[in-house]
Amino acid sequence: MSAVGLRWLLPAATVAAFELWFCLRYLGANRPENDDGERVDADGGAAADDAGGGDVLDAVDDGRAVDRADSQTAVYESLGAPNLVTLTRGALFAALAGFGALAPRPGIAWLPAVLYGTGCVLDAVDGFLARRTDRRTVLGAKLDLAFDTTGFLVAPIVAVLWGQLPVWYLSLSAARYLFKLGRGLRRRRGKPVYDIPDSVVRRPLAGVQMAFITAALSPLLSPLATRPLAVIVLAPSLAVFARDYAVVAGWYGETERA
């Protein structure tokens, strides 16, 4: 393998190894969701993850809950088509990570945008298949959210390294982890943690971010064009994170204890 191939392989393999570990960690959650709509966690985490938080920081604690539930609920013998599509998304994002170690050049200029854009499109496909085949699983929800977070971390980093986005755009990726970290610290310190109310803007904002990052990764937009657009796209998402954490901490709005 060439030196260029080795440089691409190291970050790609690192992300792929994490994704494989995450899947194996929660393999016992390959079971139907409860009739009451059991999702990733019962503390409002799924709502936060629509805005961009992930399950990564909660992996160990959530895993214990999964292990307890497995003794009571039958686990599917196969991953199923929806989860295979989600794993394909993870593979695309892992491949994208490798381009962060390469210098941009004409022969590969479109590949990051194609990889990330395809992964974003498949985000709708796995959900559609899960509903169509009645194969909505706890594992699928966890993988979907974790890989969304992976994509939102990897893609902006590649765009920054390629000079397509300003470094401060990475505050979006940092906000996802800081939200989960802050919520977890409140629990560990015995402070109240409140549920996040439903929002009509979280998913649309996530979709806007995906579309913008895909465009920023492509040669279509110059760095001079992406910088002002980044301000416009980033500000609402950071505002939602701040608002949601204020709700979680009980500083804002009508809250219900998680």
UniProtKB/TrEMBL annotation:
Instruction: Region Disordered: list its residue ranges.
Output: 35-54
Q: Which residues cross the membrane?
A: 152-179
State the superkingdom: Archaea
Which Gene3D superfamilies does this one have? Answer: 1.20.120.1760
What PROSITE patterns does the record point to?
A: CDP_ALCOHOL_P_TRANSF
Going by the UniProt record, its keywords in alphabetical order are: Membrane, Plasmid, Transferase, Transmembrane, Transmembrane helix
| Keyword Transmembrane helix set for record | yes
CC per GO annotation: membrane
**InterPro entries the record matches:** CDP-OH_P_trans, CDP-OH_PTrfase_TM_dom, CDP_ALCOHOL_P_TRANSF_CS
Q: Which GO terms describe its molecular function?
A: phosphotransferase activity, for other substituted phosphate groups
Keyword Membrane annotated? yes
Instruction: Please provide the Gene Ontology terms (biological process) for this protein.
Output: phospholipid biosynthetic process
Q: Which Pfam families match?
A: CDP-OH_P_transf
Q: What is the similarity comment for this entry?
A: Belongs to the CDP-alcohol phosphatidyltransferase class-I family.
Descriptive protein name: CDP-alcohol phosphatidyltransferase family protein
